[in-house]
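Quick question, first post here. What does this chain look like in 3D?
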Amino acid sequence: MARFLFWIALLGLANYLSNSVFRIQGMVALQLTYALLLAILLLTPRRQWPAYLITAFPMLIMVRALAIGSLSELTSFFALVSTVTSILAATAGAAILSRDRDWVEGRSDQLGAWATAGFVTVVVLPLVCASIFAAVRIPPPGYSSAEYWFNVYSNVALAYLVLTPPVLRARPRQWRELHRSGKMVEAIALIAGFGVFAALIFKQPSVLPLFLILPPLIIILFRVGFIGLSVAMALLVPIAVLLTGTGQGPFHAMDNLHVVGGGQSDANVHHALLFCRVFLVITFIIVVMIAALLHEREQLQRLAQADRDIYEMVARQSGDMAFVCDLDGRIVFISPVTAQVLGLGEGALGDFDWRNHIHPDDLGIIDAALQRARRGEEDVDCLFRAFDADGNELWFENRMRLSTTTSKEGPRFIVGSTREVTVRVLREQQLEKMAAVDVLTGLPNRRQLNEQSRVKWRLAARHSDFLSLHVIDIDFFKTYNDVYGHAKGDKCLGEVASAIRKVLKRPDDFCARYGGEEFVALLPGTDAAGALKIGEDICAAVRNLNIRHDASEYGIVSVSVGCATIRPAFADDDGSLFEAADAALYQAKRQGRNRVVASNLRNLMIEAALVAMPKRHV
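> Answer (accepted):
Ran it through. Tokens below.
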């Protein structure tokens, strides 16, 4: 019911606009109503047609009378006949065109399908409507019967040919496919720019700019496909008609339309509109022919490649799980080895749904790979986890690409192969973890520090947030090793690392072993005052370990901390933050160690020397 009411309301709005906005000097210059009705019928099951037609007739009569502002239109013989004729013509056109559902639903734009649509909408329906309209209405002043007939004919032909396809193409599925392709923003920009360009063209008093209309339409066709072209034409038509109807544009510049005295008669305006409509119909036909020829060429190439794509992939990866799926990921064929790999029973592949086996966290990886394949990327690789029949987690490597086959019986396909790589992935993960972690302290190593430094710097720059860095050095550690031995030194390093890690409580805080007895901490979102406070806490935490160190002037193990804070204004870390913190650390050592010094990147400020322990006096 909601769909029905929506279409009826839209039909009423189109009728009102046609008889008000597009009524120019007593005649409708662009009849939107029946082109929209044809599209509605094509998108609606035939069993529902009577409901639309019965409701449309009185509604269109009343809306027409309301738009014109004359109640006599409710009983006007011409209004009744023209409405009945147009409704029946749209119904007949829908009955003919609905036989080719691929064309209606936008799956095929073959030249033959467009030729049929063009014959129906440019020849048959306009001929019938124009002949009946001319027979039941006396031509307006200044018009012969032939001129009036041709005016109505061009009006109906333009509406049916140029305004029906956008309604058919601009369906939710077509927009979703355009969005998946990543061209939505480009499409909007191109169409909006074309609308501005068309308005400028049809304001010019010269005929020459008309030749500039075709190239932008072809560019839109090549960049965003037929849906973009249809919407662009639907935008072009009302702009051209309205500007021409107000006496502007190139069609008023033709020699046979010049008017002495600076004014324009009704006949001259309608002559200009007639030429405008013919120009728009011819322009649309040219672009559609180009689109249809390109479509057929691509289709022939896909059909020629289809079998070779599938069998080549299966032959090359014969030991793997080869598959064929549609664009939405539904399996059409999958090799029998899949049942063996996943431990499935015999016959389980008959209604196989791979989504039931994929790890929930990795479904997005598969969907992203399918989207890339739909865009035409070749050899799309992805790595994901899946469960076998016993619930064991396995790793798989998938490679897929778009098969170029298509037909009226179904959409294009995606072909690919899947290989079980659990052993390899687990080994790689173990090696990667070993390469990124300092074995002695359990902290990330310098390699991880470099990666995290770049990431956190860029995030801080993107959000215009603070980033603080601490360089931490164990005081007199070389002498500690000399006095207590390297085994004790290793244990000391581990305990200090643990103390530092306990101070850094936020999930985004990061600490790594920089080398030797030095550690580095990265604190996103921490300003200078906060960095100073955390540096003091680190010093206190290490002192509270109370690790004996007779070679230190404080008698226990302590640390010196240099910190610096910045709000990055550029994307890449130039090393200035680390240099400032390292300089602050050097200053902390010069000031007697066992303290924190902060830097503002321009000069050093001895912000804290909060040392609770007195120095030992020998």
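Residues 437-605 form a domain with the Alpha-Beta Plaits fold (CATH 3.30.70.270).
The longest strand covers residues 393-403.
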